[in-house]
């Protein structure tokens, strides 16, 4: 009886979170590179490209499928690339700009992958629909396709984002690196209009993908100066990680159980002390996040899948105020569009 009541309360909490997530949000608090979050209802539409580029989604799907067949690990990389983009300056493809001191050149971005996938999609879309589809919309839709290719849920993507012209490396280094505590994670998400449920659900994307050993080496020995490993690591898992990490650049699956499948095993692993990153494992021990983790381990997959779709929409809807000349539809995702040439004034007749 108690378990049934606990589950009922949690499901009610989910409903409240989902309803609140659908309401327009416009926090007053200043954010990195912007004054406030825009209401997505005013700028995005499911039918945005129906007339101007009806083949856009088909192109993105076909290209993503082709790249996935070559290298399935790129799917997880695209989802991560999308998060890094939206977390700084909103979903404006600023992570794709390739110049000195851009977000792409930041330390936090060194292990990002998938840029060539977006370039390939953009080139084909430009061929079919010139100067129409933004790189930000392409990356957002590609993240949805990547999730589907790994066995995850489908969701409708609203379109109409513009590409930013500003990208600063030091801002990208604000993205969580795997060592933050839960309070810092909650603050980071809330500053971007996302809630605690979004934090737990989007962390569930770690059911696929890999991490470099440098992100968790501090857990394997002399944890917090104790001279011992992190006590929240399962002993057998600790031994496996130690064997796998000969170099800090070595890669390890985030989900050791079903690393190639989008499922709920990430949450089950946390209960077994097998969360790879500190930011993963602490979700299981913190009273603000643990109830949601437990709910995902005790319910049917539909609960996680449905909420993951909703939280990915919330992530993709992070749009920041920018000056009119600070956004555009890039012709090449790596560079801002060239400034229009000024025509010389004709000589005046005397």
Topology diagram in text:
Blueprint: H1 2-22, H2 56-70, H3 73-87, H4 115-128, H5 135-149, E1 163-164, H6 169-172, H7 182-190, H8 196-203, E2 210-212, H9 235-244, E3 251-253, H10 265-271, H11 278-285, H12 290-298, H13 301-316, E4 327-328
Antiparallel strand pairs: 1-4, 2-3
Overview of the molecule:
This protein is mainly alpha-helical and 350 residues long. Helix content is 43%, strand content 3%. The chain has a two-stranded antiparallel sheet with strand order 1-4. The chain is globular and about 85 Å long. It starts with a helix and ends in a 22-residue tail after the last strand. Mean pLDDT is 88; it is low at 1-9 and 15-35. Keywords: Calcium, Disulfide bond, Glycoprotein, Heme, Hydrogen peroxide, Iron, Metal-binding, Oxidoreductase, Peroxidase, Secreted, Signal. Belongs to the peroxidase family. Ascorbate peroxidase subfamily. Belongs to the peroxidase family. Classical plant (class III) peroxidase subfamily.
């Amino acid at each position: 009886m108690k378990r049934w009541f606990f589950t009922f309360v949690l499901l009610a909490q989910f409903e409240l979170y989902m309803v609140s997530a659908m309401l327009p949000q416009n926090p007053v608090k200043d954010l990195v590179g912007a004054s406030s979050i825009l209401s997505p209802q005013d700028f995005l539409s499911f039918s945005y490209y129906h007339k101007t580029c009806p083949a856009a989604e088909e192109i993105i799907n076909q290209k993503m499928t082709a790249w996935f067949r070559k290298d399935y690990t790129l799917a997880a990389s695209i989802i991560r690339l999308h998060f890094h983009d939206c977390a700084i300056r909103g979903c404006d493809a600023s992570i794709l700009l390739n110049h000195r001191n851009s977000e792409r050149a930041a330390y936090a971005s060194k292990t990002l992958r998938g840029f060539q996938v977006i370039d390939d999609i953009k080139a084909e879309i430009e061929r079919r629909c010139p100067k129409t589809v933004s790189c930000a919309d392409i990356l957002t839709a590609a993240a949805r396709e990547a999730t589907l290719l790994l066995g995850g849920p489908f969701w409708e993507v609203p379109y109409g984002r513009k590409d930013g012209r500003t990208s600063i490396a030091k801002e990208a280094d604000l993205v969580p690196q795997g060592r933050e505590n839960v309070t810092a994670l909650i603050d980071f998400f809330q500053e971007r209009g996302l809630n605690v449920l979004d934090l737990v659900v989007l962390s569930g994307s770690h059911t696929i993908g890999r991490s470099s050993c440098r992100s968790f080496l501090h857990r394997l020995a002399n944890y917090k100066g104790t001279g011992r490993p992190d006590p929240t690591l399962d002993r057998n898992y600790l031994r496996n990680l130690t064997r796998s990490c000969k170099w800090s650049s070595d890669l390890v699956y985030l989900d050791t159980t079903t690393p190639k499948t989008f499922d709920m095993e990430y949450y089950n692993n946390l209960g077994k002390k097998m969360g790879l990153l500190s930011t993963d494992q602490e979700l299981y021990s913190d009273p603000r996040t643990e109830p949601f983790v437990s709910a995902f381990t005790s319910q049917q997959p539909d609960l996680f899948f449905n909420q993951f779709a909703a939280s990915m929409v919330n992530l993709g809807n992070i749009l920041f105020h920018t000056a009119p000349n600070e956004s555009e539809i890039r012709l090449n995702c790596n560079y801002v569009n060239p400034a229009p040439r000024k025509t010389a004034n004709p000589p005046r007749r005397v």
